[in-house]
Amino acid sequence: MTHPLNPSDDPGFGPAHLPYGVFAPADGPPRVGVRIAGHVLDLSAALGDPEFAAASLNPFMARGRAFWSETRSRITGLLADDAAAAHLHPLADVRLRLPFEVADYVDFYCSLEHATNLGRMFRPDEEPLKPNWRHLPVGYHGRAGTVFASGTEITRPHGQRVTPGVAAPEYGGSRKLDFEAEVGFVVGVPTEAGETVPPERFADHVFGVVLVNDWSARDVQAFEYVPLGPFLGKSFATTVGAWVTPLEALEAARVPGPRQDPEPLDYLRPKEPWGLDLTLEVHVNGTRVSEPPYAGMYWTPDQMLAHLTANGARLRTGDLFASGTVSGPAHGQRGSLIELSWNGAEPVVLADGTTRTFLEDGDTVVLTASATATDGGALTLAEAAGTVVAR
After folding, report:
1. Confidence of residue 2 (pLDDT cuts 50, 70, 90)
2. How many CA atoms lie within 13 A of 156 on its CB side?
3. Three-state secondary structure along the chain?
4. Max Cα separation, the chain?
5. Which residue of 32, 77, 250, 343 has the fewest CB atoms within a 10 Å radius of its CB?
């Protein structure tokens, strides 16, 4: 077996990364592990803490920041010792599960470019941004029960949609199924009702980061979203990566967020940089169609969390909140098909010569992302992948 610390063996998951997940070996129940290159380190066997014998990361995440940091140090020590090899499983021999039990799911709308593109598309005679957009991170509450692990098939959603030239809506499968490339944040430490979390306490509550594909039925969404916003066009499926990258692994990727005008109210003013220099990639059937840059997102995750709790709403271990579609200023940086194809007017050409305006049955979408690791090398977030199937 190749030693897992061999730098040529999948360097994006080297010892400076150490993401956490839940796996089931062929001969045992699910438990918590850490990915090191092409292997999983069984933390239940290697460390012995009861939190690692659980079938989700939630008990571990609830222990808090000091225990997270201590655990990371213990793992680093184990991997420096050849004795750790006794607790390694090849990735090919295990089954991966949804890494955490999702308590609540909130999706934001934090990309200035994405919000502007959609505003120009659907409200060409108005200002593209609504008056509140630069004052607060806009979001909506999603469904925790339809967050799925990477690799889960996505059944084409059905709903009411309007066909051009037809007066009445009809019910049927979405004809405008889309992906949304996003970055998600997983809460570890809960709060009490009435408690707020200011930006400077972000890292005390958020355990780590996952890639998110917030699948969207654009035609269903377009008919239903006035006046209360997204509902069935969003709630059918959200895909997350199978490994959660701890915040500590992303220290070298932290950057200041963009200048905000007007200056946010006091409760949203960041006290330290929590922008993240992540470069996402979106592949459809093996063709790279976009490279969205997360570093340019207008609202940063510490501000999202501060706003999420500003009214006293409590956090729970396993809460997931996502950035909304990540899009940049260039055409090749748009994080959704509705932007890339401009709502179907400009089809996207794939490597096999076929074109897409929206997703077809059988299409596979894979999101990946990379960043600089704390050792100066590359860090790769776990992919979020899904294949569309007919209902």
Report:
1. very low
2. 18
3. CCCCCCCCCCHHHCCCCCCEEEEEECCCCCEEEEEECCEEEEHHHHHCCHHHHCCCCHHHHCCCHHHHHHHHHHHHHHHCCHHHHHHEEEHHHEEECCCCCCCCEEEECCCHHHHHHHHHHHCCCCCCCCCCCCCCCCEEECCHHHEEECCCCEECCEEEECCCCCCCCEEEECCCEECEEEEEEEECCCCCCCCCCCHHHHHHHEEEEEEEECCEEHHHHHHHCCCCCCCCCCCCCEEECCCEEEHHHHHHHEECCCCCCCCCCHHHCCCCCCEECCEEEEEECCEEEECCEHHHCCCCHHHHHHHHCCCCCCCCCCCEEECCCCCCCCHHHCCEHHHHCCCCCCCEECCCCCEECCCCCCCEEEEEEEEECCCCCEEEEEEEEEEEECC
4. 70
5. 77
- Rounded to two decimals, the pTM is 0.97
Burial 280-291 (b: 16+ CB within 10 A, else e): bbbbbbeeebbb
The residue annotated as part of the active site, out of 17, 39, 89, 114, is: 114
The pair of three-digit structure tokens given for residue 87, joined into one six-digit string: 């607790």
d(CA 195, CA 315): 9
pLDDT band for position 1 (50/70/90)? very low
Question: How far from chain centre, in Å, is Cα 6?
Answer: 28
The two tokens of residue 276 are: 């993240």
C-alpha span between 300 and 257 (Å, rounded): 6
Three-point CA angle 175, 117, 280, nearest 5°: 85
- Cα–Cα nearest to 14, from 41, 32, 51: 41
201-258 pLDDT, tens per residue?
Answer: 999 999 999 999 999 999 999 999 989 999 999 999 999 999 999 999 999 999 999 9
Q: Any catalytic annotation for residue 205?
A: no
Percent share of the chain, pLDDT over 90:
93
Rounded CA-CA distance 357/273 in Å is 37
Residue 322 Rama label (left phi>0; alpha psi -120 to 50; beta): beta
Q: What are the tokens at 261?
A: 């005008």
Residue 4 in this model has a pLDDT that exceeds 70: no
Selection from 229, 353, 377 nearest residue 285 by Cα: 353
